[in-house]
């Protein structure tokens, strides 16, 4: 089986697998990275915010997120227009596109932005404990912005993970169904993470 998939048996079937992997990867990058980035770039330039975005040290990320937000707004407006004109198929297709963009933005917020905010919040709250000041944190951010953001994101992710584990443990011990947004029950068959 592996010999045929890798082309070790002399057949050229593996070239088909290579073609599909390269084609789908290219399509994925084109749809989910290239298009939102360029939509965001043209809109940032049109709004006159290019200098502010460049000063943030994260030009590519902010530009791509702006592109995703603008695509979501356009899809919502087109969906509303299609429902007013009573185009059922167009409305359904635009609604599906909006759901894809919305889920992408939610993933960015829940896995990217929220842990980053938690990490910065924990760092600011613990400055006195480490005998540091905001000037020290500003200097470290200016010297290595990517590393600083990654470390704060990592600390925030660990915090969110342990908080969720604590809520699960508390729920298991107390036997109560706690009314929290992040009240995961992975063992339930009705669990839906979207």
TrEMBL record:
It is found in: Membrane. GO terms for molecular function: ubiquitin protein ligase activity. It catalyses: S-ubiquitinyl-[E2 ubiquitin-conjugating enzyme]-L-cysteine + [acceptor protein]-L-lysine = [E2 ubiquitin-conjugating enzyme]-L-cysteine + N(6)-ubiquitinyl-[acceptor protein]-L-lysine. Its EC number is 2.3.2.27. It is a multi-pass membrane protein. GO terms for cellular component: endoplasmic reticulum membrane. This is RING-type E3 ubiquitin transferase. The lineage of its organism: Eukaryota, Metazoa, Chordata, Craniata, Vertebrata.
């Amino acid at each position: 089986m592996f010999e045929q998939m890798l082309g070790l048996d002399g057949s050229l079937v593996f070239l088909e697998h290579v073609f599909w992997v390269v084609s789908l990867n290219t399509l994925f990058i084109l749809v989910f990275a290239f298009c939102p980035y360029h939509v965001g770039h043209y809109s940032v330039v049109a709004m006159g915010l290019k200098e502010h975005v460049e000063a943030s040290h994260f030009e590519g990320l902010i530009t791509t997120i702006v592109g995703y937000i603008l695509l979501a707004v356009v899809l919502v407006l087109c969906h509303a227009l299609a429902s007013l004109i009573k185009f059922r198929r167009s409305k359904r297709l635009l609604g599906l596109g909006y759901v894809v963009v919305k889920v992408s933005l939610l993933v960015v917020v829940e896995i990217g932005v929220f842990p980053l905010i938690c990490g910065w919040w924990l760092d600011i709250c613990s400055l006195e404990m480490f005998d540091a000041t905001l000037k020290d944190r500003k200097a470290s951010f200016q010297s290595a912005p990517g590393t600083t953001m990654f470390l704060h994101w990592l600390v925030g992710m660990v915090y969110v993970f342990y908080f969720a584990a604590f809520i699960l443990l508390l729920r298991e011990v107390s036997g109560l169904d706690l009314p929290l947004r992040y009240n995961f029950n992975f063992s339930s068959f009705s669990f839906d993470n979207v």
